[in-house]
Amino acid sequence: AGEGIGLKISNVSAVFGGTIQYGYGSWLVNVKQTLDFEIETRIDLEINPKLYCEKARVAADTSDCYLKFHKFHLYLQGDKEPNWLKRIFTDFITFTVNLFIKLQVCKEINNVADILADFIQDTAADFLRDGGISVNIGVTSVPVITANYIESYHKGLTNYNNTSSEISDSVFHPSQLTENRMLYFWFSDEVFKPLIAAAHRDGRFQLSLSSEELTVGITSYADKKLFLHGQPLQ
């Protein structure tokens, strides 16, 4: 994996409330109950995300995720001073939910990071595709993520009719960029030439002239040529 940065959120407090509806029914008896609950929490969340290459695409790794509960209290029916029996019940539920949330929150953060990375790359690929012409934006090295920017290098190969261009050697070097990076696209002859050639083979550079336009064009060219030779028309 590539370099990463640390994201830390400390001492975040939140209160959740709701109502649970449950019931039991049969042909003889039908019982329905509602249970009001309130969850009071205070947590620390620390994530150390990294980027890596997977099948020539940028992928995110947030497995280094740490979630700590400073407070996690469950209250039922608004009772914040329950008796010992209800306290045993709520403590058991709190312990179980605590473990589940710790695992699930970090897992969902990783899923969201992967979805976001795929969305950005798919959008970029669609932007660089027109008809049968497309550009291969597969990454060529492990991406870098820092506090100031995210840096990745892509192939930039033109694809047309199941053929792909080749770039023998790139003259680009990261030292050519400033430290205050924004969004840079490095284009060179090795990128432009196959792209223009594919557009030409695809019939993008065609000009249709009518017979009248062609006649006018030839006459205008002849007039200019005669005038330049010191022989203006009569």
UniProtKB/TrEMBL annotation:
Tagged with keyword Nucleotide-binding: no
Lipid-binding serum glycoprotein N-terminal domain span: 25-112
Main location: secreted
Places the protein is found: Secreted
Alphabetic keyword roster: Glycoprotein, Secreted
GO cellular component: high-density lipoprotein particle
GO molecular function, a single term: phosphatidylcholine binding
A biological process from GO: triglyceride metabolic process
Presence of the UniProt keyword Chloroplast in the record: no
Family membership: Belongs to the BPI/LBP/Plunc superfamily. BPI/LBP family.
PANTHER family (UniProt xref): CHOLESTERYL ESTER TRANSFER PROTEIN
The protein, known as: Cholesteryl ester transfer protein, plasma
Organism: Nothobranchius furzeri (Turquoise killifish)
